Amino acid sequence: MSNLLEILEHHGIKGKIVSTTEGPLLNIIEFLPDFGTRIKTIKSLTEDIRRELCVKSLKIEQPEFSNKISFQIAKDTFDIIDFSENIKSKEFEKAKEDYTLPILIGADIYGIPLFQDLSKMPHLLVAGTTGSGKSVGLNTFILSLIASKTPNEVKFVLIDPKKVEFSVYNNQKYQYCPVITETNEAVSILSHLAEIMDERYELFNKHQVKNINYYNQISPQKLPYIICVIDEFADLMAFEKSIDENVIRLAQKSRAAGIHLILATQRPSADVITGLLKANCPARISYKVASALYSRIILNENGGEDLIGRGDSYFLRADGKIIRVHGAYIDDSGIKSMLEPYRCTIKHKITIADKKDSVSETTKEKPSALLRFAKFWLKLSRKDRDLIIRAIKYIFTFIVNYIKDNKKLKRTKK
Ligand SMILES: Nc1ncnc2c1ncn2[C@@H]1O[C@H](COP(=O)(O)OP(=O)(O)O)[C@@H](O)[C@H]1O
Ligand SMILES: [Mg+2]
Fold first, then answer.
1. Does the residue 111 lie in any domain?
2. 354: Cβ–Cβ under 8 A, 6 or more apart, which residues?
3. Per-residue b/e over 167-197, b at no fewer than 16 CB within 10 Å?
4. Are residues 240 and 378 in the same domain?
5. What is the tally of structural domains in the chain?
6. Which pTM was predicted?
7. Statement to judge: residues 248 and 264 lie in one domain
8. pLDDT band at 361 (very low <50, low <70, confident <90, very high)
9. Whole-angstrom Cα distance, residue 342 to residue 151?
10. From the CB of 79, is ligand 1 less than 6 Å away?
11. Which ligand 1 atom is at minimum distance from the Cα of 129?
């Protein structure tokens, strides 16, 4: 890449190229600058260098524990990270041994698969514009767990307001209940999960254990992990505010009870990804997002807006480190054939009909503040009402006098 050297020299940056590697989506050039070169200067030239190289995307990074600078240039044609190949890899075998809930996040820039433990995350927030690869990503996360756990160990609650993404998962042994597509059903299943969480805590208390892991070690009747996946989370929240409350409640407490959330949205605005939600979901993935603002909301940094799309992403690890990851790909027929051995017609313990009652309970409107005050006022005895009125009068005259005195004091000072 003498071209890059020439361009850099033109901008007054001298050094040498140490290595050039071809990854699945990017060419990575490691550059060792001459002593005294400031990385800030090079980074500030990113846009100019990208234009002069005539490439679609360029990222300049400073790898940890290295004095080199890495130029990551998008390739014209991408290699697909094949999901089915990755779950046959020896890395997956190791992840199955080491992790409670191993999921394949994708491959790093060099094509090495990256597995993480969902039980430690303990929840995952996913953002990206339409067509950036969210749904494909969610499928690979679900299928990683299916490939590593039995239907008795893991159960899924899949919520899909778009109605098409998860329908393939219906009628198989890993489902906790049929795929949820209606808002009211989503509300009730989330409050049901919150109840399950409380029940499990009571059970752990009785057996004096801290979490599901310890409980499953001592009890002959093992509890399954429950993974709740919501595609297009913002769409649901727009219709029903109580979804937000239940999601936050689960996000805050459900880890020890073995309930984990994976939430995806195409609109990671501050009203959807609230501070409280972010605090409880430190692990996040940003596929290509619409703006730098969205990127800062999901990753706490710019960069998500410059991703290439088609599964290209940044993974924010729970410890705060950001890694560039290319999502694995599986097509519909691949998903079907992976689910084939588990097909069955199951009678679910909770059916949508059961949930209807709890919906009406949870969505019951709360009385307005004015109405509540009126009720409170009527309940009071006449003597109490007089006392309150007298107290308000006293406070009011006190405040008026205080303001008057203050004004007088200012005038005399002048
Ligand atoms: N990891 C990937 N590798 C290759 N192509 C991908 C990948 N993820 C997504 N795509 C392509 O992008 C399209 C849109 O992906 P999808 O997951 O449906 O996007 P979203 O749910 O964000 O709207 C897919 O149909 C596929 O062609
Ligand atoms: Mg989608």
1. yes
2. none
3. eebeebebbbbbbbbbbbbbbbbbbbbbebb
4. no
5. 3
6. 0.82
7. yes
8. very low
9. 8
10. no
11. 22
- Determine the distance separating the centroid of ligand 2 and the alpha carbon of 392, expressed in angstroms: 57
Which residue minimizes the CA distance to atom 15 of ligand 1?
Answer: 133
Would the CA dihedral through 280, 286, 292, 294 be positive or negative? Answer: negative
pLDDT digits (tens, 9 = 90+) for 373-412: 777 777 677 777 788 888 898 899 999 999 888 888 887 7
**212, 307: one domain:** yes
Average pLDDT, stretch 200-210?
94
Answer with the one of 74, 107, 138 that is the final residue of a domain.
74
Q: Inform me whether the pLDDT recorded for 369 exceeds 50.
A: yes
Number of the ligand closest to the Cα of 137: 1
Of 30, 45, 74, the residue at which a domain comes to its end is: 74
pLDDT at residue 351, as a whole number: 55
Q: What is the phi/psi pair of residue 23, to 5°?
A: -95, -175
3-state helix, strand, coil in the chain (%, to 5): 45, 20, 35
Contact 127, 265 (CB under 8 A): yes
Structure tokens of 83? Answer: 């999901």
Query: Of the given ranges (207-211, 299-303, 383-387), which has the lowest mean pLDDT?
Result: 383-387
Report the pLDDT value the prediction gives residue 383, as an integer from 0 to 100. 72
* Same domain membership, residue 224 and residue 94: yes
Q: How far is the CA of 165 from the centre of ligand 2 (A)?
A: 7
Clarify whether residues 64 and 170 are in a common domain: no
Ligand 2 centroid to Cα of residue 280, in Å, is 24
Whether 99 and 132 map to the same domain: the answer is yes
Same domain, 31 and 101: no
Atom of ligand 1 minimally distant from the CA of 327: 1
Ligand 1 centroid – CA 286 distance (Å): 14
Ligand 1 pocket check for 50: Cβ under 6 Å: no
Instruction: Quickly count: other Cβ atoms within 10 Å of residue 65's Cβ.
Output: 4
Whether 60 and 183 map to the same domain: the answer is no
Residues 3, 11: Cα–Cα separation, whole Å: 13
pLDDT band at 77 (very low <50, low <70, confident <90, very high): confident
Both tokens assigned to 71? 């130029």
- 217-233 per-position pLDDT tens digit: 999 999 999 999 999 88
Q: Domain limits at 200?
A: 83-363
